[in-house]
Write a structure and sequence with these properties.
Length: about 425
């Protein structure tokens, strides 16, 4: 009995082996290659994008033009990128105009002082003259009263009237002299106050000029290195250039706050978000990789070159402050960055070529019992020729890497009214 079963089993195996051999031989003879397949498995999936840009400081101490209200010319400046210590001179301005203002103020103060002295002397002389007039008038009044002729028996009526007139005139002169002194004193005081205003104005001009002379040197407020600002033409400040008050000439960046400002094509920016990991390499030191995280992503894209239609998203990458080597970074250095867009530790990712479109649905052909049947799948992110399958496949499934319809007898024939099978788009890279 067992022997018959063994013989029957050997016969079945032989028949199946012969059939498969004949099938393979038929394919070789007909020139049809076997359908390539892939066994689905789970594994890590990483999607990233490359970007380029420059280093910039997140915090920096600005160096501004002197707050003098004047337009000053640069007489000397330190080289761009030079290291400085606190108190070192960074920019020195031409002092010609300020010194002229200082000399003018001193001349005005001297003139005001001389005029004040002259006014005091003249006022003093005038007041002394008024005092003298008061005393003289008083003396004349006393004399007129003493020798006034009033006896009609000794003097004529005309003499008596003339004596009364002399007494009245003397009294009037005394009153006038006394009443003239306060207005003259007030007038002298007003003149002196006006001259005092001129003196104070001259002193303010001198003080301002002296302050401006001290401000003609811009000094470094702390240790670091100087980075000069470029104008709209990309040119650095130069000797002889006119600088206005408050104009930002340079800055001393805080190295600990160094950032990378990079640009990502609008088409590649899907998935960019703050907090995602990033790596940055400075072009001048490609062997060192700096780690960091995306700190900010622009809300809207914009062109990098005027007149160019290509749009980019600006991205700020903050470095990990605990890592070494940040002290060697300088603003303006060109960098290459790799920005993480998606990362999954246990994902099913298949080649894009295994995804097709059938009846407006994304499908893959899964092998089962020697046949390839279409299975609808839900796709996720894609990168580097691979696409994540969110739903529809399991680890261990065997799928076709090419359209199995071209291999006779391997795929389930579609119904008569079915649309042709197309290669499906797997999403952006």
């Amino acid at each position: 009995m067992n022997r018959r079963f063994l013989v029957a089993g050997i016969f079945v195996v032989g028949v199946l082996g012969g059939a498969l051999g004949l099938r393979a031989l038929g394919r070789r003879l007909s020139g049809v290659a076997p359908t390539p397949v892939l066994t689905v498995s789970k594994g890590p999936f990483v999607r990233s994008v490359m970007a380029e840009g420059n280093l910039k400081a997140g915090r920096a101490t600005p160096l501004l033009g002197p707050g003098t209200g004047l337009s000053l010319k640069i007489a000397w400046l330190i080289d761009d990128g030079s290291p400085v210590k606190a108190g070192d001179v960074v920019v020195r301005f031409d002092p010609t105009l300020v010194k002229k203002n200082l000399d003018t103020g001193r001349d005005e103060r001297t003139n005001a002082g001389e005029r004040t002295g002259k006014t005091r002397a003249e006022a003093g002389a005038a007041l002394r003259n008024l005092d003298h007039d008061v005393r003289q008038s008083r003396l004349e009044l006393d004399t007129a009263k003493t020798f006034q002729t009033k006896d009609p028996e000794l003097f004529s009526r005309h003499e008596i009237i003339e004596a009364d007139i002399d007494v009245g005139l003397a009294g009037s002169r005394e009153v006038k002299a006394r009443e003239s002194k306060p207005p003259r004193e007030a007038l002298a005081q007003a003149d002196l106050e006006l001259l005092g205003i001129d003196t104070r104005k001259a002193n303010l001009k001198i003080q301002r000029a002296e302050t401006e002379l001290k401000a003609l040197e811009i000094r470094a407020p702390h240790d670091g290195f100087v980075v000069f600002n470029r104008d709209w033409r990309g040119e650095l400040p130069a000797i002889g250039q006119t600088v206005w008050s408050g104009f930002k000439l340079a800055e001393i960046p805080d190295v600990a706050s160094m950032q990378a400002e990079v640009w990502v094509l609008e088409a590649d920016a899907g998935g960019l978000a703050a907090g995602r990991a990033a790596t940055v390499v400075v072009e001048s030191d490609p062997d060192v990789v700096h780690t960091g995280r995306i700190q900010r992503v622009d809300g809207v894209p914009k062109p990098r070159v005027r007149g160019a239609p290509v749009q980019y998203f600006g991205v700020i990458v903050a470095f990990d402050p605990s890592k070494a080597g940040l002290g060697a970074l300088k603003p303006g250095q060109r960098v290459q960055a790799r920005l993480l867009l998606d990362e999954r530790a246990d994902a099913i990712a298949i080649p894009r070529q295994a995804v097709f479109e059938r009846d407006a649905k994304k499908v893959v052909y899964r092998r089962k019992l020697g046949r390839f049947d279409p299975v609808e799948v839900a796709l996720g992110p894609a990168a580097l020729g691979r696409v994540v399958v969110e739903k529809g496949l399991d680890a261990g499934d065997v799928i076709a890497l090419a359209d199995p319809a071209g291999t006779p007898g391997t795929a389930t024939p579609p119904p008569p009214d079915a649309s042709p099978v197309k290669r499906a788009a797997a999403g952006p890279p």
